[in-house]
Structures are given as structure tokens and as C-alpha cells.
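Worked Example 4.2. Read the sequence first, then its C-alpha cells.
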Amino acid sequence: MTRPVTALTALVGGLRVRIRQMPIVLRLVLAVALAMSIVLSSAAAFVYWRVQYALDQQLDEDLTVYQHSLARAVDSDERLPAGPTGSTYQILDSHGDVLHAGKAVQGGPLLTPAELDAVTHGRTIRRDQGALLPISPDPLRLEATRVTRQGRTMVAVAAVARGHRDEALRELLGQLGIASALTLLAASYVGYRTARAALGPVERYRRGAATLADGVPGLRLPVPADRDDELTRLGHTLNRMLDHLEASTEREHRFIADASHELRTPLTLLRAELDFALHRPRTADELTDTLRAVDTDVRRLIELSNALLDLEQLGSGEPIHHIPVDLTDLVHAATDRHRKAAAREGRTLTVATAPAVVRVDSRWMETAIANLVDNALRHGHGEVHIEAQAADGRLRISVEDHGPGFAGDFLPNAFDRFTRAEASRTSPGSGLGLALVAAVAASHNGTAHAANTPHGASVTLDLPC
């Protein structure tokens, strides 16, 4: 018993593997064909059962009427009646001997010994003789009951021909088989065409993706603009994903290009200073000056690297954390770190804030405010004024200085990476401060705006809080 079960399990497993390896279209067609086979078989079985029931009911009514008239004639010793067309009869004694019989059944008795014994003891037996398939000659439906005549027990067997009934059922089976086969073929063809039409966009998407995989830039999947079905929405989703991938790739390339371009200069200067120091023996003062210059270059490298990494982190789409923060504490935390540098230059930092609690990412907001203050200290003059206020769900932070302000041709590109005004190109800085400020504002769904005031430059952050 174990061996056949194992063989059947292996057969089913192999069949599943073959089906999974088929193309989706063929699997869909097989599923449609299987479902339609079940539906058609159920419908055909129901129709066949209803027709058979109606034919059997009519045949049984004719047989019952004929049996009653035959039993009444035997009991009253009358002439045996003629039954329906194709009907016949047998009158048997209790031993199974045929006393009277119609022409079609003049041979042996129609009942078996067991059936004869059951009928003589009062049972009524009804059964068919001959099969529907394969075709049997002279099929009958017979009914046998016990009758008495002059105190003698007899058995009256009435039989009606089933030929017309069986022929009608065989014809019905043939027609149902042909109709089911044609319907199954039509449904499979329609299912195949429908599946091909439905999966056509998927194949087009695959070909488009294959083209993209070959490295062709700027291509997108061919999505029809006049539809809004599941496959069309899938195409739009894939195109958005490709947009993000392309933007991510472009950001990565830009990061590498920016880093290589901006790091090259301080690294070259650092190498030149070290080579110069090692070229011949130096005094202690000369070595100290060289180390100070190297320290300046290293600091610039660290500042530039941190700024590039911060920009990359903000641009990567990494979620920021909005938490409740006291606005006054936030601004003071960002500005206090610059007070010593301002004092050394004889400049002042003034802060004006309105009491409020805002929901922002404190880490990035401190970085943005600190960059604005640092930018004002480097490129402006006089007092640096920081003002922050929250009202109507908006947070506005502005940093103003006293000085020449922004050059007119610099303002449109003030927040671009590595963009520096001509006057500031010789001053310290990486050109990434305002770009980082703009990235922080964008990550909070806000904006950054640079402008000139009557007494200097002003940069304002405006974002929801």
C-alpha cells in the first residue's frame, strides 16, 4: 500500500512542477479549461438528470397503469389487456413456470428465483432489463406483483419497452458531449486571447525593462495614458520607481563628482605642504607653521566631508523625526556655539524668539541655523540678528547680517551646491552651507529664501511646524 501512495505523491509533485514551469498564459488557459470543465459537467449532469427523471416518470406511469390492469384481469379471470406500444407480460405460478406470456418474452421467466420468492411473499419488484450503454436489444422495464386467482397464487409481470427512452437519453448524451466540447474549446480560446491581451502590457514592460537594464538612460515603460486599470497603475508605479532609481543614481554620481572635485584641492595643498616641509631640514618655527597650515587643510577636509555626508543623508529620502522642541532652546543651542568666534571678531549675536513649541527634527534644524549663523559671520559684517517665531502652524527663522549682501547674479543660485560669490571664493568655506540649509527645509516640506536687505543679507527658513 505504501508503494502506490508514494508513486502517486511523486506523480502529483512532478505535475505541479511542470505546471509551475509553464508560461502564465498556458496556466491561465488550463485554469479556465478546468473551471469550465467542472461547470459544463455539472450543467450536463443536471440536464441529463432532469430529462431522465421526466422520461422515467412517464415510463413508470405507463408501467403502473399496465400492471394494475394486468393484475385486475388475472384476478378476475378476464382477457389479458393490451398495454402500451411495445409492452409485454408474463404470468408465472409460484414455482416460476410461465403460464401465459407475450410474444416478446415467451422464453424463460423474467424473474430470478430470488425475485420470484420475494414477490410471492408480497413484495413488489420493479427493475430494468438491458443496459443504456452499451446498447442492449429489447430493453425493458418490468414490474412484478403477486395476484390470486381462484385461491391460487400467481405472479403478474408487466413490462414496457425502454427503447425510445434509452434512445432519447443516448441522443441527449451525444448532444451534451458535443456542446460541452465545443463550449470548452471556445472558452479556452477566449481565455487564451484574453490572457494574451491582459499580459500584453506586462510583456511590453519586460521589454522596456530589458532595454533599461542595457544601460539606456532616460527611458520609461510604455504606459497608455487613456487607461486606469491594474496593469496601467503597475506601469505608473514602476515608472515612479525608475524615476527614484535614476534620481538616486544621479545623486550618487553627483556626490562622487562633488567629493572628487572639492577634495582634490585641499588634498593637493596638504601634499604640497608636506613635500615642502620634507624637502630640506626645517627650523622649529617653520615646522610649526607647516603644521598649522596642515591643520587648517585637515579641518577644511573634515568640514567638507561632513557637509557632503549630511547632504547625501538628507537627499537619500531617509525619514526625519519630528518631535516637540522648545523654539527658544533650539535657536540658542544652534547659536551659542558661535558666540566665542563672534566675540573674537568684535561682533555680536542677537536672538529674538517668541515662546513656542514646534515639531521639527532638532538635529537638522540646529545644523541649518548654525550654518546660517556661520555663513553670516564669514561673509557679513557687524551684528548678526537671528529671529524665530511660530504662528498659524508655520515656523519662520531668519538670519540677517550687516554687510555688502549677496551679489545680484549670485542670488538665483545661492542654494546650489558649491556655488560661492566671487568675493567669497578666497574666504574659508565649502560652498555647501546654503545647499544644506535648503535640503533641511525641503526635508521638512518647507522652503529657504535668500534676499538682500537695506543693511546686508538675509536668509529665511519657512516650514510647517
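Now turn to a second chain, presented in exactly the same format:
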Amino acid sequence: MNARCNLLSLSSHVPSQVLTNDDLAKMVDTSDEWITTRTGIKERRRLAATENASDLGYKAALKALDEAGMKAGELTHVIAATCTPDSLCPSVACIISGKLGAGAVMAFDVSAACSGFLYGLSLCRSILAQDPAARILFVCAEALTRRSDWTDRTTCVLFGDGAGACILTADDRPPLATLEDAICKSDGSLNQLIIVGGGTASQYKQGDPVGSDFFIHMQGREVYRHAVRQMSSICEEILERNGLSIRDVDLFVPHQANLRIIEAVGSRLEIDADKVFTNVEHYGNTSSASVPLALVEARAQGRLEPGMRVLMTAFGGGLTFGATLLRF
């Protein structure tokens, strides 16, 4: 597909509350040393009781519109990637478009878990190929702490809340970055390895207590094994498809799920450690918001300069996985 897909802006938003490993040690049987050794995470953000995923996405969206020099009324599409929506219906995208006053736009959610940002970029490119005049707001917003079981130390220590947003067009305005290629895949036979429950499979009646199926469940060892293999292989595939080698990559931005996974993927790809960007220490796993959060921080730190090629990869429940190439 040769459709032009330009990012005019890129933004993020995280809640103000910081939840450290020491804070978690007061809530569940764990310690800073236990968490850091196994995950590399030191702290994560947690939304306030008055906030939802859509609120985080809305604030990120306002920043994205401002950077792009656009008003909400100029948008034609609002798309949100999330696995922790405010509700099954309406969609997070519709809630955000309503708050923005975007008017009669096409709005819907994408459910690809931690691969949501990459899936969304691929989808936006397809929309722009069909309608080059489209002006798309794409938001990734997650409220994972709302679905964390604070009695399960194997999962609750991993997740945080956050949002990222970008504006995508195919017009002639100077872009922040251009999507060069995207590959997104899944293996539905492994759907039980990561589950965020609470859908219609949870057959609650009015007044029933919430069961354990409402919260995140993950088979950690199997997830680690598949994540490393699939992210490594799909990165190799996208590089080969574009006639590139790992030496042509200026910055590698993987999904920030676990530092051990990131290190293992980097080792398999044989990429220089100084080309790998991580911020998992400060945010934990924010699912679909993970990669845009990392890109925003990399840019703020001066790690992204014009002409740089960025390789991104992610892996999440479904199981879903993908890789994309961005040229800044």
C-alpha cells in the first residue's frame, strides 16, 4: 500500500497520581526489589476515582489538536484503541468526540490490547488510502488499574494508566513523521493467555458481587515466551519487506510491558542497546498507550530527530502483535 499516512502531531497524558513499588508493598505481598528484578518497573500512574479512560484520552486529544493547529470541527474520524473502555457502549471514541465537539464524525473503538497503537496506525493508513481528504484523530487510552486485582502480586504490579493521541492526514502539510510500513497479525488460538474480563461472558445479575473474572488474568511465563518470539520475528519481517537491516534503524521503541522482554527482543534483533528506548520504569505497562507514551518521551529527550527511522513493535492479548516503521 503506497497511501501517504502522515502524523501531524503526537501527544500523551498520564494521571497525576504516582503509585510506587513501595506503595504496592503496603497493599500486597511484594517489595521494590521483587518487582524491579522481575519487571524493571519502579512506579506507574493511577487515575483518580473521578477519571475514566476517556478523560485521559480527551486530554491527550486536546494536546494533539493543538500541536497540529487544528480544531475538532475539522476532523472526519475519531478512533480510539483501548482494552479498558469506560463502558461496552458507547465507545470511548464517541465519548471523546462528543467532549471535543467534533460533530458528525465517524467514531469507533479498536480492541487489540497492547498492540492497539500499531493496529490503529495500520487502520488509519487504510482509511487515508480510501479517502485522502480524511483527517483522523487517533487516541489510545487505558485505565488498567481499574481492572487490576490488588491481591494478585503477579499482575497488579505490572500495569498503569495513560493515553496517547495523534492526528493523521494524507495532505501536503509538513508532517512530524510518516508511516512507512505496518504489519499487524494475531494468533487467536492463544486467546486465553491474557484476559481482561467483565464482558457478556460474565453473567452477573443485579446485586451480584464482582467475581475474579472481572480482573486481568495472565499466564506470565507463556506470555513472555510468545511475546519475545513474535515481536522479534515480526520486526525481522518488516525490515526484510522494506529491504532494510537492523542497522538502518535509528531508534527501536518496543511495547513497554516488561524490561526483561524488551532486553530479550533487543538481543534477538542484535540492535545496539543505545538505540533501544525504554520508559517502563516510570509507567509500567499502559497497554495501547505504551508506544505513543514512549515516542512522546523520546521526542522530549531529543532522541528523535528529522530523518530518523523508528522501528516499533508490540504484543498483547488476543494474542495480537505487530511492527511499524516511522520516518521522522
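Notes for the reader: The domain at 179-327 is CATH 3.40.47.10 (Peroxisomal Thiolase; Chain A, domain 1). The first strand starts at residue 6 and ends at 13.
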